[in-house]
């Protein structure tokens, strides 16, 4: 349990830090963060506060979908938002293109590590991942269709609000799946070490979660 909790919260903090690296690179964000940045530009609140607020709203959408949140789900809503604001406060704003590119690549790689660590702790899916799996179950549509529809919708909305879309958006879309696929088996806690109540909805019987995105 201690190892799982450390992995859970370490993964969430690292996720927030990886988001801050991508933000400071100014080279493009993943779809949900494009939305978060667009909202943050329009509202008198920080990026992290927007992340928390959107996560809470998405979690409310679980109610009609009859999804059950876990410790990881609730922690996700708060910890990532706090971590991204704290990280953005201490990180420099690089001007050199080479440094910005380094921030971007490091952000994507660390995001993959954080995703695998958080999901592998087996404390439940993140709000956005749970929304996807809930819609898949209730609509009968494929994971690919539902996830693509959600992410294109938030990406388009975020872009219209002023969120940053760029090479980082493309790099994230191409790289995050293979990274998590590689790292998740190495960071997933064995099902034999968790009780039945620890395995949340949204995962497969072999301990492999239904979605790779933790948010």
Beta-strand proportion: under 5%
Label the structural class: mainly alpha
- Described by the principal axes of the CA atoms, the overall outline is globular
When the domains are counted, the total is: 1
Run of helices and strands: HHHHHHHHH
Q: In percent, how helical is the residue content?
A: over 70%
Main β sheet profile: none
Kindly report how far apart the N and C termini lie: 22 Å
Q: Got a strand count?
A: 0
Average pLDDT score = 86
Q: Total number of helical segments?
A: 9
Ranges where pLDDT stays below 50 over 5 or more residues in a row are 196-212
Radius of gyration using CA atoms only: 16 Å
What does this structure look like?
By secondary structure, this protein is mainly alpha-helical. It has one domain (2-188). The protein has helices spanning 2-25, 31-42, 47-60, 62-65, 71-90, 97-120, 127-139, 143-161, 167-187. Helix 1 (2-25) crosses helix 5, helix 2 packs parallel to helix 8 and helix 6 (97-120) packs parallel to helix 9. The protein is globular and about 45 Å long. The model is unreliable at 196-212 (pLDDT under 50).
């Amino acid at each position: 349990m201690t190892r799982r909790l450390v992995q859970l919260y370490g993964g969430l903090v690292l996720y927030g830090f990886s988001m801050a690296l991508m933000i400071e690179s100014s080279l493009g964000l993943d779809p949900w963060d494009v939305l978060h940045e667009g909202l943050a530009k329009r509202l008198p609140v920080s990026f992290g506060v927007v992340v928390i607020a959107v996560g809470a709203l998405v979690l409310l959408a679980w109610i009609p979908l009859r999804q059950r949140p876990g410790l990881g789900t609730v922690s996700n809503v708060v910890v990532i938002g706090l971590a991204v604001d704290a990280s953005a406060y201490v990180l420099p704003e690089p001007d050199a293109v080479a440094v910005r590119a380094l921030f971007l690549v490091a952000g994507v790689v660390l995001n993959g590590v954080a995703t695998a660590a958080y999901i592998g702790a087996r404390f439940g899916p993140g709000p956005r991942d749970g929304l996807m799996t809930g819609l898949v179950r209730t609509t009968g549509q494929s994971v690919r269709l539902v996830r693509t529809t959600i992410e294109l919708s938030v990406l388009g909305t975020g872009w219209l609000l002023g969120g940053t879309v760029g090479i980082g958006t493309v790099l994230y879309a191409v790289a995050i799946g293979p990274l998590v696929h590689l790292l998740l088996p190495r960071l997933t806690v064995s099902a034999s070490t968790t009780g039945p109540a620890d395995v949340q909805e949204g995962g497969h019987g072999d301990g492999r979660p239904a979605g790779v995105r933790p948010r």
